[in-house]
Amino acid sequence: MGKTYERIDGRLRAFIEEQPLFFTATAPLDGDGTVNLSPKGIRGSFAVLDERTVAYLDFAGSNAETVAHLRENGRITLMWCAFQGPPNIVRVHGRGEPVFRDDPRFPGLLAHFPTADPAAHGLRAVILVTAELVRDTCGYAVPFMSYDEERTLHADRFRREDDDSLGAYFRKKDHIATSIDGLPGLPLPLPAMPAPPAAG
Question: What is the distance in angstroms between the CA of the first residue and the CA of the last residue of the chain?
């Protein structure tokens, strides 16, 4: 029932880009460590960069488990499933890395998200993922559910912050600079957001 793909293109890419929600899964190397599973659903925060590379925006939150796990070992799985239309599940298994604000690649990667508003969501990093295995499966047991609209709560909360106050917020949280299992998480102090490239 499942099929393996060599690249992310055509029908597969279209399906991924149409979904309003996807999930990321990571884990530490320690077999007793905490597995992390996160939903991602802010429109405009995911991009297919090429046939083997995808990226998404890592926004402010109360922990940084994905960042910590990727810094330790790079393993990540992304999953999309169809809640409407024909049943389908797509997984991208690969290697990921967090590209932080002070990385020279950051402005170029950010250009792949033209409709996103980084300041409104407290952007921390761009998560860059290189696909090693791409598969789809039937999704017959996934229920039909309707997509109504985006929640505004995240943007309402974090658009009030500047870089200094956002950094202070992160320093107060137990699992931002380190993960639940004590792995290095988001590097602090938070670097300033790079200025957008000059027009023209």
Answer: 50
